[in-house]
């Protein structure tokens, strides 16, 4: 084959190529391929091989990268650069290795890159900066913090424009994917315990989360390694400044990660968080929802053994808003939260699942946020749209009714004992319809003549679903609850009928069936 014919063939192959690579770089790759194959392939064959590799590995966007791909090539902008880490290799004669992580993004998402050894050292020496656009070739895999690409080659691309902003977010609702060097203030809503994990290089890493909110919304903050311990030293409701954060995406939601030079500083400020909540009646199974309501009942903590031999725990609470009520399962550390009937509770990013007897229930797992709120924080929940998470918008204006309308239904009188408060819940309130005063509680039951007050000593029969076990058992018939003294064993979700006399606002059950 003549040189002219070969050049023409390469031109044709390049013109048919569906990949974002310049002709100059394509020809350089062809020459490299010919050299690598030691004369076993001519330029046309090498061009066909390169074209095939490009067609197989070129992706149009970061969002198209998947862990199962053998190799990918893509273009992205540098949004943050981590610290250089060194590690020992297994072989006795092997030199110590080093690695550095770089987060890059395009308009569709973010991904973490791992640069090794010489490349990592060059980056640490200042040969890369946030804002640089790179043309990257590497191997995707699942890392602890999500998708990660181990880089084989990375070249600067000064011609391509990527619309990803760098700079501070100022408020939570202003955070956008790909931002770096973010400084934002917020009130700490919740914190998680520190978790450890093993990296591919054999070192141990640490990670923890906290959630902050302001007048515009909330966002989860991820703290890595030595910064992770901050999550256990900061109390909820503390106002803080997050310095040197960068915005990433996880499971469709924005997260704020703390940069290597970042900090979480307590500040002397008053930051108000306005939660936005979906109405309980509007959520459906498989939704991810944000809910807010008054706690109607709480269960004791239950422990269980996981498959790996560790011990887990869960606690069920039932919350009510203006549209209905729902059981919420608090898992892990969230089960230890100090909540009681009458408290206001905000649970965000909970999964709506199929519960007992085809009833809906919410699951608050590690990715959820559970926040006890002051009584005046939720004058009225707003009806949002279930299914979203991450950085969320602010609530709408308060309206008449709402949670404030349920406060009396969820609390006993402030003068009542703790036992009275936990037992009476929505069924027993101070100052009942018959005009009783102080801590004396009454409850109501329906008969053929309508709703009548029930006094101590009255014989009543109450049918409902068990929403709290222990002492007392609490039954819920969909309209009110009844606290029941019984020695019978019951389970959550079981429907039972209790018959007996009312004493101090509780039904002393002679029969339970």
How would you sum up this structure, described in words?
The chain has 513 residues and is mainly beta. It folds into five domains: 3-57, no CATH class; 62-156, OB fold (Dihydrolipoamide Acetyltransferase, E2P), CATH 2.40.50.140; 175-266, OB fold (Dihydrolipoamide Acetyltransferase, E2P) (Beta Barrel), CATH 2.40.50.140; 280-409, OB fold (Dihydrolipoamide Acetyltransferase, E2P), CATH 2.40.50.140; 431-512, Beta Barrel (OB fold (Dihydrolipoamide Acetyltransferase, E2P)), CATH 2.40.50.140. 13% of the residues lie in helices and 42% in strands. The chain has helices at residues 3-15, 23-36, 43-57, 117-127, 230-233, 407-410, 418-424; strands spanning 72-81, 85-87, 97-106, 109-116, 133-143, 146-156, 182-191, 195-198, 204-214, 217-224, 239-250, 253-266, 288-298, 302-305, 311-321, 324-331, 344-354, 360-364, 369-373, 429-430, 441-447, 450-454, 459-468, 473-476, 481-485, 495-503, 506-512. The strands form five sheets. The protein has a five-stranded mixed β-barrel. Strands 7-9-10-12-11 form a five-stranded mixed β-barrel. Strand 26 and strand 27 (506-512) form a beta hairpin. It is elongated and about 100 Å long. The model is unreliable at 379-385 and 392-452 (pLDDT under 50).
Mean pLDDT: 76
Cα-based radius of gyration, to the nearest Å: 30 Å
Strand order of the largest sheet: 1-3-4-6-5
* Distance, first to last CA: 94 Å
Number of helical elements: 7
Helix content: 10-25%
Instruction: Using the coordinates above, name the CATH class of the largest domain.
Output: Mainly Beta
CATH superfamily of the largest domain: Nucleic acid-binding proteins
- What structural class is derived from the secondary structure elements? mainly beta
What is the global morphology? elongated
What's the architecture of the largest domain, going by CATH?
Beta Barrel
CATH topology name of the largest domain, in short, is OB fold (Dihydrolipoamide Acetyltransferase, E2P)
Number of domains: 5
Bin the strand percentage: 35-45%
Low-confidence stretches: 379-385, 392-452
> Biggest sheet, in brief?
5 strands, mixed, barrel
Question: Could you tell me the number of beta strands?
Answer: 27
């Amino acid at each position: 084959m003549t040189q002219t014919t070969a050049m023409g063939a390469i031109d044709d192959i390049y013109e048919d190529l569906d990949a974002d690579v310049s002709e100059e770089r394509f020809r350089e790759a062809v020459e490299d391929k010919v050299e690598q194959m030691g004369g076993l392939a001519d330029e046309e064959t090498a061009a066909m091989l390169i074209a095939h590799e490009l067609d197989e590995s070129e992706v149009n966007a970061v969002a198209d990268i998947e862990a199962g791909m053998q190799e990918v090539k893509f273009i992205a902008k540098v949004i943050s650069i981590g610290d250089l880490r060194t590690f020992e290799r297994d072989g006795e004669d092997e030199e110590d290795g080093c690695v550095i992580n770089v987060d890059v993004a395009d308009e569709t998402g973010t991904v973490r890159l791992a640069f090794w050894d010489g490349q990592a050292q060059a980056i640490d020496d200042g040969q890369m900066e946030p804002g640089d656009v790179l043309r990257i070739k590497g191997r995707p895999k699942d890392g602890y913090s999500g998708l990660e690409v181990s880089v084989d080659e990375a070249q600067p691309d000064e011609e391509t424009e990527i619309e990803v902003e760098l700079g501070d977010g100022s408020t939570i609702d202003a955070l956008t994917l790909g931002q770096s060097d973010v400084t934002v203030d917020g009130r700490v809503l919740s914190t998680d315990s520190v978790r450890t994990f093993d990296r591919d290089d054999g070192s141990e890493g640490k990670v923890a989360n906290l959630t902050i909110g302001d007048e515009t919304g909330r966002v989860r903050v991820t703290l890595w390694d030595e910064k992770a311990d901050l999550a256990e030293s900061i109390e909820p409701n503390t106002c803080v400044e997050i310095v040197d954060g960068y915005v990433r995406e996880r499971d469709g939601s924005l997260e704020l990660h703390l940069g290597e030079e970042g900090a979480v500083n307590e500040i002397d400020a008053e930051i108000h968080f306005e939660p936005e909540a979906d109405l309980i009646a509007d959520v459906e199974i498989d939704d991810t929802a944000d809910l807010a309501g008054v706690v109607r009942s709480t269960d004791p903590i239950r422990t269980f053994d996981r498959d790996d031999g560790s011990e887990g725990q869960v606690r069920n609470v039932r919350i009510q808003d203006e549209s209905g009520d729902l059981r919420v399962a608090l898992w892990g550390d969230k089960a230890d939260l100090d909540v009681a009937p009458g408290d206001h509770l905000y649970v965000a990013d909970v999964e709506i699942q199929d519960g007992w007897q085809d009833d809906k229930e919410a699951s608050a797992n590690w990715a959820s946020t559970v926040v006890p709120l002051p009584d005046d924080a939720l004058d009225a929940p707003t009806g949002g749209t279930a299914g979203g998470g991450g950085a969320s918008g602010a609530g709408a204006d308060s309206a008449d009714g709402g949670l404030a309308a349920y406060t009396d239904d969820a609390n006993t009188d402030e003068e009542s004992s703790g036992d009275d408060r936990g037992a009476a819940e929505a069924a027993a309130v101070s100052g009942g319809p018959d005009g009783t005063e102080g801590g004396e509680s009454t409850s109501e039951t329906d008969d053929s003549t309508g709703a009548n007050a029930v006094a101590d000593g009255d014989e009543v029969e109450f049918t409902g679903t068990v929403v709290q076990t222990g002492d007392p058992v609490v039954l819920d018939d969909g309209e009110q609850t009844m606290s029941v003294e019984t020695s019978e064993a019951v389970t959550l979700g079981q429907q039972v009928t209790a018959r007996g006399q009312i004493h101090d606002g509780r039904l002393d059950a002679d029969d339970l069936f």
